[in-house]
Amino acid sequence: MIREEIEGVWCIVLKDLKAYYFKPPNISWGILFPLVLALAFTLRKPSGLSDLAPGLVAMSALFGTTSMEAIVITFEKRIGALERLLLAPISLETILIGKVLGGSIFGLMISSIMTVISIEFLGVSVKHPSLFAISLLLTVLTLSALGSLVAVSVKEVFEAQTLSNYFRFPMIFLCGVFLPVESMPAPLQWLAYTLPLTYSVNALRQTFVGPLRHGDLAFNIAALTLFFLLFMTVATRLLKKHLE
Amino acid sequence: MKDIIRTLGLTKYYGNLLAVDHLSFSVKEGEIFGFLGPNGAGKTTTIRMLVGLTTPTEGTAIIDGFDIRSEILEVKRRVGVVPETSNLYDELSVKDNLLFMAGLYHVPRLEREDRVRELLESFNLWERKDTKFGKLSKGLKRRLTVAASLIHHPRIIFLDEPTTGLDVMSARSLRLLLKELRETGVTIFLTTHYIEEADQLCDRIAVIVKGRIVTIDTPENMKSIVRGIPVIEALFDSPIDKSMTDDLSVLGEVWVEDNRVRMLAEKIPETLKALISFATRHRLKIIEVNTVKPGLEDAFVKLTGVKPEIMRLEKERGGQ
Fold first, then answer.
1. CB contact under 8 A, B54 and A84
2. Is A156 helix (H, G, I), strand (E, B) or coil?
3. CB pair distance less than 8 Å for A83 and B87
4. Which of A89, A142, A209, B271 sits between 20 and 30 A of B88, alpha carbons compared?
5. Which of B76, B89, B141 to mutate to probe the A interface, most A CBs <10 Å?
6. What is the structure's pLDDT at A87?
7. pLDDT at residue number B319
8. Residue A47 pLDDT > 70, yes or no?
């Protein structure tokens, strides 16, 4: 039974990557957008380029996962293709895990490319590779689960895009991608700590450019895990409700 | 033959709206069972409950020995579904779509390629195996959707309005295909609003109106309801508007198609008189008048009071 569910997840992942994700416009959007935004900030303040690297990776993970994830599920719901999956002898949870993993793999690929670009062009090196890998993996899983939550909450593709932008753009400016959270006014800091990207940027910063504080990293990783579980649970419930 | 589907008081409410009202019927193994009814009668909702896409509000169904409420994964292993819209993946090729379905339905890895080839060959799609689904014609998309529903050798297939929107040739070829499928022992449960289609294909038909079954019988037995009641068909020199025939309706069921008026005529002389005065009143010329053998369409009208042309119109509007 478990083997069949795993097989179901794998089929959905491969299908989504082939049918939707691995298309040149998606790959270029996932990389170009964070690069252009970083360039704009660098032109304004040329020093401290290497500090931007963890934020750039987090941002490409955010756009790599949520841009397509939200659209793919909403689109399949709209054209009835999601029913194909719901008719198969696999559980609803398996379907959602497959969808989230597809988005995560794509996000992982895009943010890995951004990591390589950062190493080559910003002169930084990954200080703690295995912890960085864990942080990046949790980041893409959490953000992809957030994308799926957006997708199951709305009916139309344009609604998914609009709703994604409501939290994506504030997250870029609030979560420490360009400015440290500590330098912001207290109310904004509180807001930042309700957003998953803050924990991603913290974890990626410590493991990418340092300095590493074990207790703090563990807290960030725990927070990301909790966000992931929360997004998955709510998304599953909403999808079940949609079927009623 | 054993009952392969048995519904027990199957009921579905959407809010306060009663969509399916305590349906209890059974389908025999190996038969083609038709669900016939107008738009909004509850046909699709019934199928959606039977295949696990929505949960019944009350009641249940047993499919091949498994309860849809508690053993839905077992049910899904045994059924194939062809939804009203051909909903495979536009971006995947014909072959990749079937390989994906084979994986999803746990067809053993070593058998997948052979099974896909077998299906594509028997559905005359092998030469299009590398074409993307999105590039196929409507008829070929429908064919592939039926092929996909058979990937895991299901014992039952559910088809929701299988020929809606197809051209005449594609619809005919799909009906032929369904008859061939029945020969292989697969039970076929289909919904349709085309009475001729149900008549040609089905061993038994359930007529459903407003969520309730009006009757279940063979097409032949249904026709016997109107056997003995002659049907008069009059052809006029110009098209007839439905609203013109209100005064004819007092004599019995009337339905209109272009220049033709068809009536169940329990009293022939009175019906003929009424037709002549109808023609005079509307300045129409009667081209010919015939008595015809009543068909399933006449039985359907007698049983439900729903006019087939209204049913077709509703469906066409719904599909736009």
1. no
2. coil
3. yes
4. A142
5. B89
6. 94
7. 44
8. no
